[in-house]
Amino acid sequence: MSDQQAKLSEQEMKTYRVQGFTCTSCANIFENNVKGIQGVEDAKVNFGASKIYVHGSTTIEELEKAGAFENLKVRDEKEQKIERESFWKQKANIKVYISAVLLVMSWLLGEQYGEDHILPMIGFAAAILIGGYSLFIKGFKNLSRFKFDMNTLMTIAILGAAVIGQWGEGAMVVILFAISEALERYSVDKARQSIESLMDIAPKEALIRRGNEEMQVHVEDILVGDIMIVKPGQKLAMDGTVIKGISTLNQAAITGESVPVTKTIDNEVFAGTLNEEGLLEVKVTKKVEDTTISKIIHLVEEAQAERAPSQAFVDRFAQYYTPAIVVLALLIAVVPPLLFGADWSIWVYQGLAVLVVGCPCALVVSTPVAVVTAIGNAAKNGVLIKGGIHLEEAGALKAIAFDKTGTLTKGVPAVTDFITYSGNENELMTITAAIEKGSQHPLASAIMRKAEENRLNFNGVLVEDFQSITGKGVKAKVNNELYYVGSPNLFEEVHGSIERNQERQINEMQSLGKTVMVLGTEQEILSLIAVADEIRESSKEVISKLNSIGIETVMLTGDNQRTAAEIGKQVGVSDIKADLLPEDKLNFIKVLRGKHKSVGMVGDGVNDAPALAASTVGVAMGGAGTDTALETADIALMSDDLSQLPYTINLSRKALAIIKQNITFSLAIKLVALLLVIPGWLTLWIAIFSDMGATLLVTLNSLRLLKSKE
């Protein structure tokens, strides 16, 4: 395809919502049908999100015609969501009720007049036709193309039962199959609702002020730069920056954290969050399709469309398995009568039962429902997993490397100690903060924050003759007294030496990984101020949980060995690597992968991007605030909270276990049913119950992931 064609194709891609998908194979048939429509260059179905992406030009009528085999309803993505029909009122389910009534009536007539009487036979035939009409249409179409899926297998089995006079069993098989399909539809819908609930988080309209006029505007028509007015109790419809007001916002929908966050002027706010208290005026900074919640929904949908390794294996397996079952059924039906003179009707019946048992229904549905459910659940808890492959790999992690600054620590320096030798502590802190106001050093902001916390009015202090002493500190006059604020080295120069007691205290604090600043005059040292990057409250507990589940934890940092050792000891990591450049982190991840194969990396998604990319699973902190985190990582923790990590690993391990259980159970139940052929005990009833039971159980087993919580 030329660049021009590629651009044209890109321009013409449209997204449509689809209602009525029951299984992945139906979604594949629909995709192929749409590809065959004139004017369509390419089409891709996302089964998990119930969407189809179409390159080229087509109409909704043509798309619905392509989905007529399954009565699919199609809508433009930007239109109102398709109204969800009540499960009990769905057309496919009404057919099941009618068939079931006919089956019971025919059975009663058979009891009265005998099974070979014309009346029960007509009743059973009507039940077969009404309940299996759509099944037969799909089955015959597939037969004409020599395509063997579950619809083909069921069609052959039911018609075969009718031919050998087993009308009652044929009707029962139709109804049980229809019930299993209805339950499958119900289960898949439940899993899908986890995404639809995300879509409903942000309102579709907002109160916008343009000039002096206030108006309700649909989100599609809101422009970047518009002023959005958000009243208490309302949800934000768009991302933006607060320009007026102060309030607490519940950001649980985006970050998964339940504690409301205070927002004031210049703070960033997100669509879908709930304004709890004050009136806010927000300047819109992103279009509706670029908001954080839109990105999350898009990434979750993409993730659910991506095949997990086990799903790809199952799909490949089913390709060979289904034709093999057809051949096996044919051999069972034909070989005993031809070679050993056995009764044709008995062995044809056994062959038909094998066809029903062989339906790969449970096997095919075993992985996608688990993946869709787990990814949807994670998104609701503030964890964005960007694909089934990452979901599975997170469950297999043997080691996790953590960046120190901004990941295990808050990434913001804070005053930890303030030791005074002479004068009043508040007075000295006020003087220090007033002098440091003129400094650009990051440690200066830590002192100013501490003074603000203590409600000290350092802004009212007059500072004169401010001068920076490069690499060492600053000096300035306050109340005609010359003060110095800087490193211990600066005071060694000014005073010639530092008293032994003061030097001991400085060394003690430095050995704990703290940076020490000194306030003094030309005559004496007045106070010592220790500043350190504070450890997150959750770090120690998270590392402890990970160590307890057998995961090796390593801290990687560019900081010096002494500081790294102190913080590593406090949080409890298994190993510490300090003085690392970004490329050193990358190389260490490669070494760790050589040792463990499956290695995770947790970072803030900016300077850690190379190491995140090199790890098996890259986990970024604070996805809600940074586009980089959303783009570079395989998993994003939407809040700045490490406690979501053990939850994610437990969810992944649970999903892996459920997928393995589903595949094992699907194959085991079929094997047991097939073994019943040897003594001749396999009936169509047992066959359909084993198939339906397996499908239902693997689906319900997968839905257990909805209940997985932190």
UniProtKB/TrEMBL annotation:
Its EC number is 7.2.2.21. Residues 12-75 form the HMA domain. Keywords: ATP-binding, Cadmium, Cell membrane, Ion transport, Membrane, Metal-binding, Nucleotide-binding, Phosphoprotein, Translocase, Transmembrane, Transmembrane helix, Transport. It is an enzyme of class 7 (translocase). It catalyses: Cd(2+)(in) + ATP + H2O = Cd(2+)(out) + ADP + phosphate + H(+). It comes from the Bacteria. It is found in: Cell membrane. It is a multi-pass membrane protein. The chain crosses the membrane at residues 94-111, 117-136, 320-340, 346-376, 663-682. PANTHER family: CADMIUM/ZINC-TRANSPORTING ATPASE HMA2-RELATED, CADMIUM_ZINC-TRANSPORTING ATPASE HMA4-RELATED. Belongs to the cation transport ATPase (P-type) (TC 3.A.3) family. Type IB subfamily. This is Cd(2+)-exporting ATPase. It comes from Gracilibacillus marinus.
